[in-house]
């Protein structure tokens, strides 16, 4: 996926051009204001880069699932207010990006000005990847920049069709960063290349394991996912979260993996999921009936940390336990800290997945790793080796 990025346009005369930028401003809204500005901040490097070169910046994004028609609950107006605070300047709001008036508005903008258009999903053509809607979007710019990695796994009018109609069509700085780190890890990883997988379900991650098995040197498995593998090994798992219909797949993966899959040696177990509940640490073959695994045990944390310390590229997706309910966050924190130490020692460390990123943020460890992906589903699709339509449509290098 060698795609052209805006940085490649640095020597071209961009001054006065209208840059149509697809961002992912799908942020949580509470009581009419943006509750978390992380995604807005993630787009600032691209917006600033374009403003510094005298372009006029027109932003497109979706928000929530308004089902193809206007719905005030999903208006981007609160996002415009948050963006004004972040940029310290007024933002022009475009109510109907499909109107002739919208085109006139973008033509009236001054160099360095920024406009935000209303939710792309207010139009039925968006999710249908409708070329007619894409043409309306394309009329708002003189070049197209896609900085919405988290939306790139969807082939929508504002992410896919528009990139065929408005050229050049390039990756924004956030998008380019995602492609560099995730793509680099899969294409030419410094070795040993280690993958750490966790989370609730094996079902959503089978394709990731399939794709990574030949590429990665080892895959560490934690989270409830491990329990389905335990069941496949014939172990008693008590009332741990297991996907009975995936035990067969887990067994096949174990057979094919040839020692590449590393499972926890032991579990932290409890009879119920609560912070004040009595817990025990047991070897994996000693989980009693009525008890459930909610975290990896200390021995496994040390084992995983040692694997991480010995690797040069590490991709982590999915928490090691029910990190939302301490003390079952200990295994996840141990892995997060080990990643930080590995980064300090020169390894490239990449975290993908909404919950893993949230755990990292809650522990204040975001800056200790090389890259935290902003794409939950998109990052997973990427790790599955699938083509992301929003990326594929951009200009090749
Ligand atoms: P990500 O968003 O990082 O890709 P997932 O969505 O796959 O991660 O999984 C996150 C969820 O997995 C969390 O809500 C966490 O509580 C749950 N989980 C992890 N380990 C266990 C476990 N042993 N039992 C039950 N749930 C678990
Ligand atoms: Mg999740």
Estimated share of beta-strand residues: 15-25%
State the distance separating the first and last CA atoms: 9 Å
Instruction: Estimate the helix proportion, in percent.
Output: 25-40%
The CATH class of the largest domain turns out to be Alpha Beta
- CA gyration radius, whole angstroms: 23 Å
How is this structure best summarized?
Helix content is 35%, strand content 17%.
Report what the structure shows.
With 397 residues, this protein is α/β, with parallel strands linked by helices. The protein has two domains: 6-176, Phosphoglycerate kinase, N-terminal domain (Rossmann fold), CATH 3.40.50; 189-383, Rossmann fold (3-Layer(aba) Sandwich), CATH 3.40.50. The chain contains 14 helices and 17 strands. It has helices at residues 38-52, 77-87, 100-108, 131-138, 157-165, 173-187, 206-212, 225-232, 247-257, 298-309, 330-344, 354-362, 377-383, 389-392; strands at residues 18-22, 29-30, 33-34, 56-60, 92-94, 114-117, 143-146, 169-171, 193-197, 218-221, 261-262, 266-270, 279-283, 292-296, 313-317, 348-352, 371-372. The longest helix has 15 residues, at 38-52. The protein starts with 17 loop residues before the first strand and ends in a 5-residue tail after the last helix. The model has no long low-confidence stretch (mean pLDDT 96). The structure holds adenosine-5'-diphosphate and magnesium ion (MG).
């Amino acid at each position: 996926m060698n795609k052209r990025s805006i940085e490649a346009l640095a020597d071209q005369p961009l001054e006065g051009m209208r840059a149509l930028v697809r961002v992912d401003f799908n942020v949580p809204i509470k009581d009419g204001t943006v509750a978390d500005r992380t995604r807005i901040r993630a787009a600032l490097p691209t917006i600033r880069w374009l403003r510094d070169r005298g372009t006029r910046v027109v932003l497109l994004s979706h928000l929530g699932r308004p089902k193809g028609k206007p719905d005030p609950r999903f208006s981007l107006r609160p996002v415009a207010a948050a963006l004004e605070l972040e940029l310290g300047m007024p933002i022009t709001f475009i109510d109907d990006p499909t109107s002739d008036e919208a085109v006139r508005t973008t033509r009236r903008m001054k160099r360095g000005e920024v406009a935000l258009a209303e939710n792309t999903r207010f139009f039925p053509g968006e999710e249908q990847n409708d070329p007619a809607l894409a043409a309306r979007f394309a009329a708002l710019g003189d070049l197209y920049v896609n900085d919405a990695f988290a939306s790139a796994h969807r082939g929508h009018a504002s992410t896919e069709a528009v990139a065929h109609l408005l050229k050049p069509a390039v990756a924004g700085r956030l998008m380019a960063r995602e492609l560099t780190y995730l793509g680099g890890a899969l294409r030419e990883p410094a070795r040993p290349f280690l993958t750490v997988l966790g989370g609730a379900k094996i079902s959503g991650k089978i394709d990731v394991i399939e794709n990574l098995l030949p590429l990665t040197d080892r895959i560490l498995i934690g989270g409830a996912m491990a329990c389905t593998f335990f069941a496949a090994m014939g172990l008693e798992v008590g009332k741990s979260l297991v996907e009975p219909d995936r035990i067969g797949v887990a067994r096949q993966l174990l057979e094919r993996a040839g020692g590449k899959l590393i499972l926890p040696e032991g579990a932290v177990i409890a009879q119920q999921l609560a912070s004040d509940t009595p817990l025990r640490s047991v070897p994996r073959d000693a989980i009693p009936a009525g008890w459930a695994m909610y975290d990896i045990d200390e021995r496994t944390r040390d084992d995983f940390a040692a694997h991480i310390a010995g690797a040069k590229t590490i991709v982590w997706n999915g928490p090691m336990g029910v990190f939302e309910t301490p003390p079952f966050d200990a295994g996840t924190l141990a892995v997060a800290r080990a990643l930080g130490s590995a980064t300090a020692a020169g390894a490239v460390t990449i975290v993908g997945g909404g919950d893993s990123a949230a755990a990292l943020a809650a522990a204040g460890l975001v800056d200790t790793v090389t890259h935290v992906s902003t794409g939950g589903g998109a990052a997973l699709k990427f790790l599955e080796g699938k083509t992301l339509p929003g990326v594929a449509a951009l200009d090749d290098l």
